[in-house]
Amino acid sequence: MKTLYPIVRCLCTTGILFCSGLLSITATAADEAAPATGQAAPAADQAAPAADQAAPAADQAAPAADQAAPEKPAYTAHTTSDPRIPRDQLKVMVKPLTKSELQVEADAWFKLLRAKAREIAGVRMGVKKTNEALDTDDDQAAKDRLTVAASITKKITDESQAEEQEVTATAQKNLGVDEADVNAPADADADADKTDLNADAAVKEAAVKESASKDAVAEPTPPTGDAADSQSSTALSAAQLKSKMLTSVTKLQDQRTGLSDRLGIVLDSLEGKGGDVKEYRLYAARVSGIELDTSDFTAAWTGFVGWVASQEGGQRLAWNVGRFILTLLITYFIAKIIAAIVNWLLDRKLKLSRLAERLVASTIKNLVMLIGFAVALTALEVDITPVLAAIGATGLVVGLALQGTLSNFASGLMILINRPFDVGNVVSAGGVTGTIDQMNLVSTTFRTFDNQTIHVPNNEIWNHVITNITANPTRRVDLEFGIGYDDDFEHAENLIKEVLAANELVLSDPKPVVVTHELADSSVNIVCRPWAKTSDWWQVKTEVTREIKRRFDQAGISFPYPQQDVHFYGSAPTPSADG
User: 3-state class of 480 per DSSP?
Assistant: First the structure.
């Protein structure tokens, strides 16, 4: 213990000294940091007013930022700045527009079409009231109806024109153009304005006469000559007003057709970008077209004549029909030229069969004609897109319904690829024997030896045995002659060989075969097999047969008839007592 005590004491003293030194070092560092803290505090105090000054600046900068970045204004239609805009220019304008922008454009054109349809309806209602004025015998009632007709026509016309002006003015403002520049006078527009002026003048004239008639008929008076003149004047005014209204209807219908076409251009673009245009198209279809009132001959005839003479009516139809016919004629000549070129190429370069050449050339010609017909339909303003879509949608049903035809089509392709026969060959196929006349992808045409034309489905030909009788340049003629058992068969063979040698159409190579090959029931049969060109086959057969018959008769060689010997065994039957 005494030994450890000094050691413990030394350790404790050392520890106390170490802690004292550490505390002194910490105090010194704190004293040095205090001035820095004091200096930082004034800096913070100075920064605070600067922050207070920066806050109002930020508040002032916020409105400036709001002014610098204003909200994007809503899109407004601009293609309606000129309702008479050329169609090709309208197509260019609507092409880059988005779906939402096209929706706005469609709404604007729809408003113009609706306003024009309302204006036409108002004028037609005025015509109806004018007819009532012409039909009545009461002069005062006629004047009242004329007043109503003028009032209805003027009110609806003013409202429709105001709506149209609002739409066009908005578009012109959006584009920043002057209304005078857009509405430059044109012939059609001058006619339309003139018609409107005439209609307004007629309305005013009717109103003035109606006012004068009211003053004149303040007290009932018996009919006099003046009253008859007044009634005649009212009827004349009604007829003039009706004529001007009918002329105005024709002009308005022409304008409506133009608006409907331009709306259709916008709708086509909108539909192509995923928009719903069903309601627009239904409305346009219902308000478009020529309307003839069969109960009023004058109105019907005026409407028809006006439609025929109008730019958007008869003239447009005549132009479209002319383009349709011209397109078909051009397509026909182009198809013939292409078919001739293809036929020449196949004949000179590919060396196909004539059947294949005709079929390929005919198919290409028909394809070109089909394409030309589709293009010609567009000249008549017929939309073939729904037709093509319907065909594609019903492809499965059509395929099932035309299963047999498709099978014939496949068989026709197999015949073309394998070429078992060609045009002009004598073929036995599908139960028919005759000369091949022509072939398409569905059937093959045979011309028989008795000049019958038979159309056989390709499927019937390809699925059965095909015998090409004239495929090779030479053929063997198979003949067989029977002589009696009592005749000299060697002499008969020599006679046949002499006949073959004497015939110039019989070929020497291959060598003809004449041999006795069968002992039949009633005759000794000799086979005669000469060779001849395929084109001479029938002539060789008939000439050799005739000559052999003649030589056999001269040599006394008989052609036995088929016979049977019947033998009876036993006694003959005894006759009866009655016999």
Answer: strand
